[in-house]
Amino acid sequence: MPRHDAQGMGGLSHRLMVCDAGRGPCISGAAMSAVVKLPTAAPRMVRQPQNKGGRAARAALREAQGCEFPFMRPEEREVAHLVDYMEANPLTAERRVLFALIKALDPDAETRLKLAVGCAGDASALNLVELIFADQCKTFAIQSVLRRRGLA
Predict the structure, then answer these.
(1) How many domains are contained in the chain?
(2) What tens digit of pLDDT does each residue of 80-138 get?
(3) How far is 101 from 95, CA to CA, in rounded Å?
(4) Residue 38: burial class (beta carbons within 10 Å; 0-12, 13-18, 19+)
(5) Is 39 inside a domain boundary?
(6) Residue 25: phi, psi to the nearest 5?
(7) Domain span at residue 113?
(8) pLDDT digits (tens, 9 = 90+) for 7-59
(9) Within-domain flag for 10
(10) What is the pTM of this model?
(11) Are 23 and 85 part of one and the same domain?
(12) CA–CA gap between residue 34 and residue 9 (Å, rounded)
């Protein structure tokens, strides 16, 4: 004999009945019916781009490469030339004094210095000025590249 439950469905006023077969509640005593697929329903198999065959193909491609390509973030790629300059020209006592003097300049003199070095077109001087006036993001990227190369 079915049991009536007036508190079912989160306190709604629907009457629920538990079927004798033990399949769960039956609304309004209606028997369990077959599931009908709607015409707008998605296909049964979900199309996944990360399927087993695709993973195997990517793994085979990686194995066929023969070498590993190290990944560098874009900001690290932008400062790689500065790290090359730092490797080729180690920081000497004279350069440290030069860095300190240039950093002590007022903003107007700093701008004039950047313009003068830019007009001269000397690549090493441009790298030096870019290193001196590097912002925090660029400094972190330089440190990251130095750590990656084992120099810091």
Answers:
(1) 2
(2) 999 999 999 888 898 889 888 888 888 898 889 888 888 888 888 888 888 888 899 99
(3) 10
(4) exposed
(5) no
(6) -75, 145
(7) 74-148
(8) 444 444 444 444 555 555 555 555 567 888 788 877 676 666 678 888 888 88
(9) yes
(10) 0.52
(11) no
(12) 21
